[in-house]
Amino acid sequence: MLLIKKNKKEKSATAVKRGHTYYQWIFSLLAGCTHLVYGLECGWISPTATKLQADNSPSGYPLSDEEIAWIASCMSIAATCVVILYSYTSDRYGRKINIIIIAFLGALAWVIRIFDNSFICLILARVCAGIAAGGCYNVVLMYIKEISQDDMRGILCTLTTIFQSVGIFVMYLIGAYLDYYSVIYVIVCISIMTMLGMMLAPESPEILIKEGKIDKAMKTVAFMRGLDEHDQTVQTVVETMMKEAAEFKSMPDLNILSILKNKIWRRGFVLIMITFTFSEMNGAFAIITFASTILTSTGSEFVISPELLSLSFPVVMVLGSLTVASCIERYGRKPLLIGAYVVSCCCMFGIVIIIIIQKEAGGVPGWIPVVLMMLIVAMFSGGVCPVTFVILTEMFNFQIRAKLMSLVVTYFYYG
After folding, report:
1. According to the CATH classification, is domain 20-201+255-414 in 2.120.10.80?
2. Cys bridge to 83: 116, 217, 407, 410, which one at CB 3.0-4.6 A?
3. Closest to 325 measured CA to CA, from 402, 396, 385
4. pLDDT tens-digit readout, 10-45
5. Distance between CA 169 and CA 175 in Å, rounded?
6. Are 165 and 321 in contact (CB under 8 A)?
7. What pLDDT, in 10s, does the model give residues 201-218?
8. From CA 26, how far away is CA 36, in angstroms rounded?
9. How far, in Å, CA of 370 to CA of 270, rounded?
10. Where in the chain is the domain with CATH 1.20.1250.20?
């Protein structure tokens, strides 16, 4: 009897250990490099603005505050305008080619700056970066979701947030201490390597099934999981995808209006829009942008150098992203998101109380507002932002995912 139990345990352990997830990690990291470049682009303005406004500016003359503001904002404007386009191209031509285009545009944005740094060319470069950014939070996340197995999806999707936070941190670090052109050369190399690497990546199996390439989809699923293509797990995964594809193929062509007429899909869309609305109202972006102003408004006496202040927030963002990546599969999405919002609300309330106390009664220890602000930023990068996007990728099935994600991501950039 004991021998039978032992054999059963050995078989169970063998079943658990079958296959591997190496390629899921490799290609998720590779696709996530587009977010690394996006993070570098997001952080570029902060350490570079003083160089562009100096007498020896790379632009040939010191740029005005208004010109810097246009250069900073045009990326988000361009991203907002093209997100809807990615919903069509990602379904029509596949996820892989779109990620390659995103990496190419990311490289082009920096190559332009190698040859010309006039105001117009900097605007053009940032627009190219914005067009690339428009696909980061939908095409890249869809691709990672579709090549990942269920128990890996959460942690792999949070890699994009980690990469973006690392990109901001690295840019703050190297942007302040390296030569203007040296920074550009480094980032161009990253973009080109990402583009070349994605050429070797497999297409999303759900796209392959949509195109009728069942055998190729079977090989892709097997390759990603380190299993034989005749393995029962691979067969089950592909059969499930085929059933979903057949079900929606029998339906008329779906557009946004027809999708929203479906009660279940409409309810899911409303819920995710409410979630993103609260994400936009989190306040972390305002803290990162106006940290020194907010700290000054507390009236507390402390000394923080601009360099230390600018580096501390990306560090906290990276730590928060790493934390959520390590526990998202263990504790689930809902508890982490609720916990992040509760902590954020308490910290925001604490900052308000500190400001009131300072005005009415007197000073407070200078470290308290700093800690509260760090916690808000950590909760944003370690819960509010990544978990919300993971939920977005999982909430809708393949046939409507691109269309609804494009609407939600457009709303995200607009906010």
Report:
1. no
2. 410
3. 385
4. 444 444 457 788 899 999 999 999 999 998 888 888
5. 10
6. yes
7. 999 998 898 888 888 989
8. 15
9. 35
10. 20-201+255-414
